[in-house]
Amino acid sequence: MQRIDPLDDGPSAGGPGRATAWPEIEDFLRARGADRMPHPGGTLLHHLRRVAQLLGDWGADPTVQIAGLCHAAYGTDGFAPTLLDVTERPTLSQLIGERAEALVYLYASCDRGVVYPRFGSDRPVLFRDRCTGQEHTPPEPDLRAFLEITAANELDVLTHHTDLARRHGPSLYRLFTRSYDLLSTAAQEACEHHLGRYADGA
Prior knowledge:
By secondary structure, this protein is mostly helical. Helix content is 51%, strand content 4%. Pfam families: DUF6817.
């Protein structure tokens, strides 16, 4: 898999939409305030970069890496601040491509309290959109990308916030272990390395 280097011009975003180099995406995120928004480990932009880099280290394709870089653009069920309103989806889609934007929205719109317990028990996994209240069934490639981004996000947050790690480590360990068939081998190994200590409490 191709890993995007955030220090060079990077490949295009891929898929329908305008081809965009990595620095242009970061410039957009800065313009929307990501570099001024506090987040465990520094700013939101620091976090977004680390998530994208982790996805690259795990072998995710460039579209998933870019979705990881933008995953908090609309806010999430666990992080309320937003860089864009969901009414601005066409703006992000034009920047990063339709496929990457769709993954960003899938991640942002997930009603975690409803959806997370369904992993490992129901297949296909029925998603609830917290923005609309509607339910839908993502195709498996989207589900895999969603879970890979989720793992990269949570591992980075917990690495930089000890209290959150103690509070949420056991439940996240349960989530990822019952979903291992949807995670890459590298992501599985990272989850075991960072969350295995919580196995007894899971």
